[in-house]
Amino acid sequence: MSVKPLVAGNWKMNGLKASVAEFEAIAAGYDAALKAKAELAICPPFTLVAAFAQKGLLPVGGQDCHAKVSGAHTGDTSAEMLKDAGATYVIVGHSERRTDHAETDAIVKAKTEAAWRAGLIAIVCVGETHAERTGGKTLDVVGTQVAGSLPDGTTAANTVIAYEPVWAIGTGLTPTAADVKEVHNFIRKELVKRFGADANGIRILYGGSVKPSNAAELMAVEDVNGALVGGASLKAADFLGIAAAYK
Ligand SMILES: O=C[C@H](O)COP(=O)(O)O
């Protein structure tokens, strides 16, 4: 099944009002040639979601959401609020949320359901730590996260998976193409086993130190259907360079 790649930028806790210029530069550089190669999306901090979405230039996403619609949850943002602000996507279960906010697979699953309830596409993140990789536990860990974080009813239309080895995030380190292939093939098999043939169309992004110089090799790997990009998504030239790496 041919799947149109998605290159999504996760700006994390970066960006002020002035950053709209960088967002506009990304959109301006997304020409017909790049459009033929990949879809783009930007997930800025909550404070910029509405401002970016109002530009109507590219799909925008949040970086997290609460599982509930509304209520006494100081500092949290619901999926409905993101949808109201103009978002298309929301990242859930990023390793920085799993670590900094003790998010379990059950919490990530509830957030994924919240995303669907609001009409958002969930970008569900999974990935092993360095100790888990060196301990030979990568597939066990990723398999458990995939099973526990995805609700019944996961489809290519409502969910994107992002495989992000924790040790590759922001470090400049990346797994070998063979290691990426092993994990992505494994995730694909798990998805098809549970959700049926439609799961061949679920996009599985790779994330972790993706940049223009390594994108061609990583994006060519079987079952890699795009990238979730952190640092290199903050500069239009780098982000567009990753999309341009597609043949
Ligand atoms: O969500 C994005 C990932 O955490 C990757 O971040 P990075 O590209 O800065 O390594």
UniProtKB/TrEMBL annotation:
GO molecular function: any one?
triose-phosphate isomerase activity
> Is the Transmembrane keyword given for this protein?
no
Could you list this entry's UniProt keywords, alphabetically sorted: Cytoplasm, Gluconeogenesis, Glycolysis, Isomerase
Which GO annotations describe the biological process of this protein?
gluconeogenesis; glyceraldehyde-3-phosphate biosynthetic process; glycerol catabolic process; glycolytic process
Enzyme nomenclature, EC number: 5.3.1.1
Q: What's the catalysed reaction?
A: L-erythrulose 1-phosphate = D-erythrulose 4-phosphate; D-glyceraldehyde 3-phosphate = dihydroxyacetone phosphate
Q: Does the keyword Isomerase apply?
A: yes
What superkingdom does the record give? Bacteria
Active-site residues from the entry: 94 (electrophile), 164 (proton acceptor)
Subcellular location(s): the record lists:
Cytoplasm
The entry's cellular-component GO terms read: cytosol
Q: Identify the main location.
A: cytoplasm
- Give any Pfam family that matches: TIM
The residues the record assigns to binding substrate are 10-12, 170, 209, 230-231
Identify the pathway: Carbohydrate degradation; glycolysis; D-glyceraldehyde 3-phosphate from glycerone phosphate: step 1/1; Carbohydrate metabolism; erythritol degradation; Carbohydrate biosynthesis; gluconeogenesis
State the family named in the UniProt similarity comment for this chain. Answer: Belongs to the triosephosphate isomerase family.
Q: How would you summarize the oligomeric state and partners of this protein?
A: Homodimer.
Q: What does this protein do?
A: Involved in the gluconeogenesis. Catalyzes stereospecifically the conversion of dihydroxyacetone phosphate (DHAP) to D-glyceraldehyde-3-phosphate (G3P).
Mind telling me what this protein is named?
Triosephosphate isomerase
Gene behind this chain?
A: tpiA
